[in-house]
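Let us begin with a simple case.
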Amino acid sequence: MTDDIYRSITDAGLTSRVILNCHGGNYSLANVVQEGNAHGKRMALFPSGRGWADARQSAGLATSNHEDMHAGELETSILLHTQPELVRDGYHQADWVADDRRHLLTTGMGNYTQSGVIGRPSLASAEKGKAVLASLVDSFASVLEIFRRP
């Protein structure tokens, strides 16, 4: 599968490419970028885990990447900033903690949450969402700078 994704991207004929990965479960994309760079392509994956952690810290989020996995503080904050009409009433009461998810890839999320929430949406705010996105925009500049180099 990684080879298929890589071929599909490189067949486009571009000299540089950034794959925007806004879903933590797309692990194979890191392999696609690594494979591309090993073959002389200029590729990047954005944001990285570090980029998300920096955005969390910059925005003052209380939760970590691990504990706030799905529909928690980070994602709800972004939605409250960008599309608040998509956030359901009652999100303040939807917190669900499932820190031990050792079999997540085997059993899926349904084994750990019935609502789809793994995290703390009660901590979300539009201001945090705005700060997260601003941090990601700032960190994207460093990726673009790499592509400007000869």
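The second case is a distinct protein. As before, the sequence precedes its structure tokens.
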Amino acid sequence: MTGDSAAADDLTQESLARVVERAGQLADPAAFDAWMYRVTTTTCLDWLRRRGVERRTLVIVDPVDLDLPLDGLPGADDRLLRREDVRLAVLSTLQRLSPRQRAVLVWRDVLERSTDETAEALGLTVANVKVLLHRARAALLTEHRVREMDVPVDGRVVERFAQAIEQGDAEGLIALLADDVWGVVDDGRGRRRPTVGLRAVSRQWRNALRRYGRPQGVTSRALNGEPVLLLTLGGMLFACIHLETRRGRIVSIRVLRDATRLEGLSARHA
């Protein structure tokens, strides 16, 4: 719902406090889970309204550090968002939905609640829930940009990408890119336009390797249930790179370079 690890932690505590304070309002103990989800969702929506965040275009969410396997995630089904699907690309795309669309999608496709339960929890009509869910799924599919990808990402491609960066091998890196590749860099300084297409992304990475040179270190870590690359430069964590792949080629590159958020990530992986 937030895309912000610190905010999520704070809102979890706030939600638990509300649950304790309002425990007397729960008429049916058997409905505790749904009631707790409703309280938590309301807390998140209140936070989003206070921040005035409706669409955070091309802002990469905080990576999720969970103890999940790098394989064995379920295949695609009739839902675009699954309980197990914590890929950073999906979570980042989710932030581009309106708060209500996001809430409906989470209730229906993550919590797997019925349309009636979702409507009651969010104070909406059943018809409104159906419309919001349809629009949210359609927007998620469109905004994700990648129609077909490997789930999880191909670890062999990630390793070859890491080797190319370590060696400063621009041509080797570019050889891994798909024709329809796109990328975005989030440095925490506002909205960034995506770089789309092989030619544009190739030029961007040639310039980056020329400007920054070889990193001091490139390490692979498991974040969001998939391998990602952490780049060290000047003795500090410089970037976190998430890739999406398709048939041995890279179709999207998301680079997080927000120093404030990388500081927290660096502390967790020190």
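The longest strand covers residues 236-246. The two ends are 28 Å apart (CA to CA).
Keep these points in mind for the review questions at the end of the chapter.
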